[in-house]
Amino acid sequence: MDLNDDYLAMRRLGEVSKALCHPTSLDSVWHRTAMDSPMPSLTTLDEIMGRLRVALFPGFFGTAKVWRESIGYHVSANLDSIYRLLSEQIRRGYCFACSTGDSCRDCDLRGKEAAMQLLDELPRIRELLVSDAQAGYEGDPAATSPGETIFCYPSMYTMIHHRIAHVLYKNKVPLIPRIISEMAHSRTGIDIHPGAQIDECFFIDHGTGVVIGETCIIGKHCRLYQGVTLGALSFPKNEDGTLMKGNLRHPILEDNVTVYAGATILGRITVGAGAVIGGNVWVTTDVPPRARLTQEKAHRE
After folding, report:
1. What's the sign of the alpha-carbon dihedral 288, 294, 295, 297?
2. Strand 276-277 relative to strand 292-293: parallel, antiparallel, unpaired?
3. 300 pLDDT tier (thresholds 50, 70, 90)
4. What is the mean pLDDT of residues 264-293?
5. Which residue has the higher pLDDT, 94 or 70?
6. How high does pLDDT run on average in the chain?
7. Most buried residue, 132, 171, 254, 270, by most Cβ within 10 Å?
8. What is the pLDDT of residue 107?
9. How far apart are CA 174 and CA 199, in angstroms?
10. CA distances from 118 to 111, 169, 201, 253 (A)
11. 213-267, pLDDT tens digit by residue?
12. Given this model, what pLDDT does residue 234 score?
């Protein structure tokens, strides 16, 4: 490329820059946060999740060797870092969601409080995750120990993210719970909205392609296989044509429900305790407790 070619390239780049910065184009993508705060950092949130995995399962994750006698020191130092990093990311989330762009002056305090609320919940989150690991071990004959499910299984990786994101979601933290959920989704192919309520001893075998919607309620000792969808049957709209937000539109699975690969369960219906949904079944009506729903039965009904 000679000097003339360089000159022409610079002119063309200048035209592209001018077009991208034109108000008619820029206005469609420009988002001003409160106090012009930076957007949340995906890199920092990834670090936070790594630190939380270490806090919840010491010895399984992280590079440092941890001794039982000194574990209190390691946990305290790690929690301090999590608190500081997470407070800032939640603050940015609040600023992102601020509708006025400049009136939110308490985002810093709200970020610190929401971060502390999550840390307060870590003992309970660990209890739930331990029950999930045990469910994975008991539900998969290929698993050699609960520890293997913690370290290797996509279900556990996803549930660590989900149980953390769900606490933030319950505490009305904007944006950050969804980012945390999507981090797991992109790695495992399991898509769980942070609003979904999932009780103890939950296991997803294989996992790829599972979708669990925002208003799902899943009871104790439930198991899903790959390709299962717990979704909405329809999307009601407001008078102006926009989708209604917050309505209850996803299924309820009572305790001890098993859903096999490829099944699709849609709408605010209830699958009764102990029911088994066979593979590739389409379900849009309530399922009685202890029922066995196969393709043949579903087609007949």
Report:
1. negative
2. parallel
3. low
4. 97
5. 94
6. 91
7. 132
8. 85
9. 23
10. 11, 10, 21, 26
11. 999 999 999 999 999 999 999 777 787 877 778 799 999 999 999 999 999 999 9
12. 79
Q: Find the Cα–Cα–Cα–Cα dihedral 238, 244, 247, 249, rounded to 10°.
A: 100
**Averaged over 4-25, what is the pLDDT?**
89
Q: CA–CA separation, 143 vs 261, rounded Å?
A: 19
CA distances (Å), origin 32, targets 28, 95, 96, 129:
12, 9, 8, 38
Q: What is the phi/psi pair of residue 170, to 5°?
A: -60, -30
Per residue in 148-197, pLDDT tens?
999 999 999 999 999 999 999 999 999 999 999 999 999 999 999 999 99
Q: Where do we find the tokens 């495992």?
A: 188
DSSP string, the chain: --HHHHHHHHHHHHHHHHHHTSHHHHTTT--PPGGGPPPPPHHHHHHHHHHHHHHHSBTTBSSS---GGGHHHHHHHHHHHHHHHHHHHHHHHHHHH-SSSS----HHHHHHHHHHHHHHTHHHHHHHHHHHHHHHHHH-TT---HHHHHHH-HHHHHHHHHHHHHHHHHTT--SHHHHHHHHHHHHHS-EE-TT-EE-SS-EEES-TT-EE-TT-EE-TT-EEETT-EEE-S---B-TTSPBP-S---S-EE-TT-EE-TT-EEESS-EE-TT-EEPTT-EE-S-B-TT-EE-HHHHHH-
Please state, in angstroms and rounded to a whole number, the distance separating the CA atoms of residues 271 and 228. 14
Q: How big is the chain, counted in residues?
A: 301
- CA 118 to chain CA mean position, Å: 15
C-alpha R_g of the chain: 23
Q: Does the predicted TM-score (pTM) go above 0.85?
A: yes
Sign of CA dihedral 93, 99, 105, 106: negative
Residue type for position 218: I
- With 0-12 / 13-18 / 19 or more C-beta atoms within 10 angstroms meaning exposed / middle / buried, residue 267 is middle
